[in-house]
User: Fold Cilia- and flagella-associated protein 206 from Aphanomyces astaci.
Amino acid sequence: MERIPKLVADVIARCKYEGVDVSETLAAFVCRTVVQDDANRFCLDGDVDADGLAALTQASVTTLLQKDSPSLETIKMQLDFDLCYVKHEVQFMHIYIEEVDKARAAKAKKVAALHRSISLLQPNGTGDFDTLTTLYRQIFTLLMVHADAEKTGDRNVEREVAAALESVFPRIGLKSFVSMTPEDKKFQLKELSSIVGGIRLFNKEIGKGGAGITYSVPNNDRLDTIRNNVTNVSKLAAEEVDEANQVSTEYTEVLLHIHHYNVHDNITPDRIHRWQQELNNKRQFLSYLQSLYEDIDVSVDKISRIMTTYDNELNTLKALVGARTSLPKGQVYPVFEALSKAWEDLDAEHQLLLARSRSIKAYVTFFEYRVLRCDIY
Assistant:
């Protein structure tokens, strides 16, 4: 109705005059709460005279100016969660996805350009040594781009990639490669990149290579770091929820004791009412904590599943390779590809978990000031 925006604006202005800044959302929410508490007196859908509007405005302002009020802080917490958390979560995901997409887009652009260049490069017969050498060098460059190492100047990475390329796709293979269609060339190049990536990951795991491969954690390139991070984040979530749950339980037990045993010595009805409001405040915070950490639980579960896949592929390779120096390509190459894909998924999800963990810690700090200090002890 037309009167509602004016009513909310009046409430905000009155509060500001008293030195308290109130958001439009909070003012509107409190006005509606006052109306619901006394629906017979305040009915905004019907006729409300000037005295009624003045009384509604005053009641709303009085509520908003309360200090140390559990019910008001619970309302603020609810609005903070509904608005701020969702807003920050959307912004966080947008920023994260934007950063990831930007890096992926830049890499994809380089890969696409190399795919086109490689597909269009045609030697004049099998004796065109210069063109074939250029083609092989471009394929090597493509693999360096996939390894995110084309500009690092790391000679160890270059040697490993060159050795893997020669093993999987020796120069003699160029003769059949140049006769393929552009789509077949693209498919083979993608397959080659995954296999080489898997070989380097495997070599890193057995301590015989993997230069330049990191696990999204500075100065620590072990999978154990990811496992530890998953454990630590899960522990943090459990501790926060357990602490909030313990406080709520203690409030509940005291109030139940007072109710069942009619214990009212030195405890006024106002004090009991205050404790009930504080309990609502604690329970609200607990419910928000549980919602916040559901996001982390999803990431933790996904990482656990990916790590199981990664470990399975790694163990399969160890069993296949053993002490043997040669294996059927059709048997071992698909496992290298699967290992490479599992690693890409794992690294991306781990980075997401770390970013989300930092974000949620900020949320907890933000919401904790809405949780009142215990008055029951």
Observations:
- DSSP finds eleven helices and no strands in the chain.
- Residues 121-206 form one domain.
